[in-house]
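Everyone, describe these structure tokens:
***
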Amino acid sequence: MPQSNTREVAQTLDPVWSRIRDEASAMVADEPRLAGLVHASVLNRRTFEDALCYRLGQKLASGEMTEGLVREIMTEAHDADPELGRIARTDAVAVLERDPACHRLIQPLMFFKGYQAVQAHRVARHLWIQGRVDMAYFFQMRTSEVFGVDIHPGARIGQGVMIDHAHSIVIGETAVVGDNVSMLHSVTLGGTGKEDGDRHPKIANGVLIGAGAAILGNITVGHCSRIAAGSVVLESVAPCKTVAGVPARVVGEAGCDQPAVSMNHLLNTTV
């Protein structure tokens, strides 16, 4: 098959990976001193999954677990559950669409710790479901140490999720985060004490959570709602509302159909 036709087929089958490879080539041309890193992480990789596992192996390796072992465990998880790769692509596109600092699909894969931490958690969650609890905890520990993002492997996180900046994120064991959720740094989805069982928040689809917000207890945040920065949410939130304050109270409607996509944090918006 001619090279041009092969390229067209590759773009049709996996446009995200094809675009990342094109962007990697451009990155090497623009910044030759990154050539070794970019070739090793992207251009020498066979697939998107291969690149993702390689990159996270580099980041999560330590004296306790070599890069090769971390990558092997992650590759096994992706081979066993192809949904991990599909969702990782969806997350990357979500970051590109919502983060104004992101201009290329290669950036989340190479540089954005929020994206990398979520993908590491997805492997930890896979291990947790498989009963490999100790290995899941190891991945949680390394993700927290490296990225400053502490997500319990029992937590369930949907697809199309973006965590911007992603410093000091805490998500508890029984928390649920729906699809197409966006959150800023220093967000806590936590419990309220020493109670066991189902004790963490349930975040519905399309929710926007501002920086420094704490959502505590087994409560529900309805779909397409907004949590203002710095709020402490202790009671369930109805769909399509904006809450703010300590403790948080409803201060208006969500302001738009998809707040997690628009990323509009203004409380007085009429958009």
Observations:
- The domain at 11-149 is CATH 1.10.3130.10 (serine acetyltransferase, domain 1).
- Confidence is low (pLDDT under 50) at residues 6-11.
